[in-house]
From TrEMBL, chain A:
<dbReference type="InterPro" id="IPR050166">
    <property type="entry name" value="ABC_transporter_ATP-bind"/>
</dbReference>
<dbReference type="InterPro" id="IPR027417">
    <property type="entry name" value="P-loop_NTPase"/>
</dbReference>
<keyword id="KW-0813">Transport</keyword>
<dbReference type="Pfam" id="PF00005">
    <property type="entry name" value="ABC_tran"/>
</dbReference>
<keyword id="KW-0067">ATP-binding</keyword>
<dbReference type="InterPro" id="IPR003593">
    <property type="entry name" value="AAA+_ATPase"/>
</dbReference>
<dbReference type="GO" id="GO:0005524">
    <property type="term" value="F:ATP binding"/>
</dbReference>
<protein>
    <submittedName>
        <fullName>Sulfate ABC transporter ATP-binding protein</fullName>
    </submittedName>
</protein>
<dbReference type="InterPro" id="IPR017871">
    <property type="entry name" value="ABC_transporter-like_CS"/>
</dbReference>
Automatic annotation (TrEMBL), chain B:
<dbReference type="GO" id="GO:0005886">
    <property type="term" value="C:plasma membrane"/>
</dbReference>
<feature type="transmembrane region" description="Helical">
    <location>
        <begin position="252"/>
        <end position="273"/>
    </location>
</feature>
<feature type="transmembrane region" description="Helical">
    <location>
        <begin position="125"/>
        <end position="145"/>
    </location>
</feature>
<feature type="transmembrane region" description="Helical">
    <location>
        <begin position="91"/>
        <end position="113"/>
    </location>
</feature>
<dbReference type="InterPro" id="IPR035906">
    <property type="entry name" value="MetI-like_sf"/>
</dbReference>
<dbReference type="InterPro" id="IPR000515">
    <property type="entry name" value="MetI-like"/>
</dbReference>
<keyword id="KW-0472">Membrane</keyword>
<dbReference type="GO" id="GO:0055085">
    <property type="term" value="P:transmembrane transport"/>
</dbReference>
<keyword id="KW-1133">Transmembrane helix</keyword>
Length: 261, 291
């Protein structure tokens, strides 16, 4: 698991003409309309967009939790999904939560304990394997959730604002950790965030989504070499540009309409 | 795509020092005896009041003996084998009846939770049964099964099983949607989902159902032992009616104390189990944590 010899890139995700509507008749909402997206094997894509523009819906569809109204979705391997709230099971320890994912993946009993410990070590929780979720901070819980994603051995990892509830300092450290784990494991990532600087810090490519219906309105390849610092000049410039575009997109919609519900 | 390397294996854990877990302030917890003190105090006040009423002459001493007389009678009874036979029979009935009710209630609860058809068919029936005082079943039970163990068991099970089933049902219904989602993401379906996620998540509600079920079982059993007197089979309940028939107030009260103590012990056990469960999940209320 040395970062010097990363695993070969794997995964990849292809969405073609994907749309999703909820409800029917007058109350019908088209959350996504005719969306095309390609994520290369091993690529890290960050998705930003206003609230309610369909980011979570896109991930839910890509994870196969719901079926699209139209279109097709192909993933190059198993898909894992990580939420903003860690959804760790409170009756299990950190190790127990990771072991459950291993068990459901079919890892034999004898191997689970050691493997779970190893995965928790990778997210720097080696000394906290026996803690229960309520005994951990928000950042620690998300690290357990990350270890659980690793336990699923997925080729495509979808993250829905996984750091949204964390303070700035913990966030920075999670960026380093997510990047390290991703470089090491070689899977594709689709990372949804409302934090533009975070998107630039992490992604190979950023995608800006617009609303009503949800669609891709802008893409940007981020060629700043890693490791990146969020406050470095090239990152700040790219983030400023993306922020400007996001503002324009949000302004296109009447606020009341945009933030309805 | 080129993959730049970032070697961070030299970073020592924890990742962020600010994230040391919250300390469990065990030192702030009051000692065990301080928890017991209010209970002892209340018992003491009760005994004093009882003695005062007994001495007041409101009823003759042989009808309303004081606590010393009753506790003396209890000690005397405890030295007789028949007391232990009665206690043993009652406890056996309680445990067997409750176990049956748990098995039946759990099975019905799980089946009802998993099947939409069963739910609409018997879901409200279960709730309805719960509102019915179980003593009401005795005349029918005696008619159908005669004055015997079966009649008692029948009513005990009928009294307790609906609460258990309801505990399962409520527990399963209240599992947060996020856990169902997680099950989907992790690939847990059907029975696997139940075994690893739904049932553990429903456990606190299940324990509440068990606790309530036990309370109903115990009440039904006492009613049964008062009503269904099986010749030769002595038990706590029928000791009570004998004592009443023979005007043995001290003996009657002694048995009442035994029944009270058994009930309190069981209740304490269930509360402790529920509290432990909640504590392990970080759900204990501040009051529970202080207790
Ligand atoms: N299950 C659902 N039923 C009805 N409408 C939904 C459902 N899920 C999402 N929507 C609607 O779809 C739109 C996109 O939602 P979502 O994907 O959650 O947005 P985002 O994650 O970008 O904030 C919103 O208008 C939301 O109200
Ligand atoms: Mg969302």
């Amino acid at each position: 698991m040395s970062a010097a010899a990363p695993t070969a890139a794997r995964g990849g995700l292809r969405l073609r003409g994907v749309s999703k509507s909820f409800g029917r008749g007058d109350s019908q909402v088209t959350a996504l309309g005719d969306l095309d997206l390609d994520v290369a094997p091993g690529e890290f894509v960050a998705v930003v967009g206003g609230s309610g523009c369909g980011k979570s819906t896109m991930l839910t569809l890509a994870a196969g939790l719901e079926t699209p109204t139209t279109g097709s979705i192909d993933a190059g391997g198993k898909v894992a999904l990580m939420f903003q709230e860690s959804t760790l099971l409170p009756w299990l320890t950190a190790a127990g939560n990771v072991e459950l994912a291993l068990q459901l993946r079919g890892v034999p009993t004898a191997e689970r304990g050691a493997l779970a410990r190893q995965l928790l070590g990778r997210v720097r929780l080696g000394r906290h394997v026996d803690k229960r979720p309520h005994e951990m901070s928000g950042g620690m819980r998300q690290r357990v959730a990350l270890a659980r994603v690793l336990a699923q051995d997925a080729a495509v990892v979808l993250m829905d604002e996984p750091l949204g509830a964390l303070d700035a300092m913990t966030r920075d450290q999670m960026h380093d950790l997510i990047e390290e784990v991703w470089l090491d494991a070689g899977f594709s990532v689709v990372f949804v965030t409302h934090n533009v600087r975070e998107a630039v810090r992490l992604a190979d490519r950023t995608i800006l989504m617009g609303a009503r219906p949800g669609r891709i309105i802008h893409e940007q390849r981020i060629q700043v070499p890693r490791p990146r610092a969020m406050e470095s000049a090239p990152c700040v410039a790219l983030a400023a540009d993306l922020t400007q575009r996001l503002r324009e997109e949000v302004a296109r919609h009447d606020e009341a309409d945009y933030f309805e519900i | 795509m080129t993959r730049p390397t970032t070697s961070r294996s030299d970073v020592a854990e924890p990742l962020d020092p600010a994230e040391e877990p919250l300390a469990d302030d065990a030192a702030a917890r009051p000692a065990r005896w301080r928890r017991a003190l209010p209970i002892l105090l209340a018992t003491g006040i009760f005994l004093v009041l009882w003695q005062v009423v007994s001495w007041s002459g409101w009823k003759p001493e042989y009808l309303l003996p004081g606590p010393t007389v009753v506790l003396g009678e209890l000690a005397r009874l405890a030295s007789e084998p028949s007391f232990w036979v009665a206690l043993g029979r009652t406890l056996t009935r309680a445990v067997v009846g409750f176990a049956l009710a748990v098995a039946i209630g759990t099975a019905i609860g799980l089946a009802t939770a998993r099947s939409r058809l069963l739910r609409s068919a018997i879901g409200s029936l279960v709730t309805g049964l719960q509102t019915m005082p179980s003593v009401v079943w005795f005349p029918l039970a005696i008619l159908l099964m005669g004055l015997g163990e079966q009649a008692i068991m029948f009513v005990v099970v009928l009294g307790a099983a609906p609460s258990v089933a309801n505990g399962v049902l409520t527990g399963v219904d209240q599992v947060p949607p996020a856990y169902h989602r997680l099950g989907d993401v992790l690939g847990a379906r059907g029975w696997t989902l139940y075994r690893h996620i739904i049932i553990p998540a429903a456990l606190p509600s299940y324990v509440a159902g068990l606790s309530q079920g036990w309370a109903f079982a115990w009440r039904s059993l006492m009613a049964g032992e008062l009503l269904v007197v099986i010749p030769g089979a002595i038990a706590l309940g029928n000791r009570l009616s004998f004592a009443q028939e023979f005007g043995d107030a001290a003996g009657l009260m002694a048995y009442m104390i035994v029944i009270l103590v058994v009930g309190m012990l069981a209740d304490t056990a269930f509360s402790a189990a529920a509290r432990r469960l909640r504590e392990r999940r970080g759900l204990a209320t501040p009051a529970e944590r202080r207790a």
